[in-house]
Amino acid sequence: MATNLQALALEKAEILSSRLKEIISSGQGFIQTQFGVDLGLNPDAYPPWLVLSTAALGLLVLLLAALILPSKVPVS
């Protein structure tokens, strides 16, 4: 049972990682067409764990910013 759960989790992580890599590629293409800037990223060269951990870290930073920043804004 544990191996089935591990295999399922690994499969879902690979799917999520491939979707994030597609988003990175399309975003890089958008920046290149709109601004003429080539970021030089190759998302396929990065391992899935790095893509997933970077996305999770970004979401954590956004969550913390959403929780901390509104409390510092004075109410008028």
Description:
By secondary structure, the protein is an all-alpha fold. 78% of the residues lie in helices and 0% in strands. The protein has 2 helices and no strands. It has helices at 2-35, 48-72. Helix 1 (2-35) packs across helix 2 (48-72).
- The percent range for helix content is over 70%
Low-pLDDT segments: none
Gyration radius (Cα, Å) is 18 Å
H/I helix tally:
2
Derived from helix and strand composition plus strand pairing, the structural class reads mainly alpha
Q: Assess the beta-strand content as a share of residues.
A: under 5%
| Mean pLDDT value | 88
Report the sheet with the most strands, covering strand number, pairing sense and barrel closure. none
**What is the molecular shape?**
flat
Instruction: Give the N-to-C terminal Cα separation.
Output: 57 Å
Strand tally: 0
Order of helices and strands: HH
How do the strands and helices of this protein lay out in sequence?
Elements: H1 2-35, H2 48-72
Helix pairs in contact: 1-2
Which features would summarize this protein structure in a list?
76 residues, mainly alpha, 2 helices, 78% helix
Summarize the structure.
The protein has 76 residues and is mainly alpha-helical. The chain has helices spanning 2-35, 48-72.
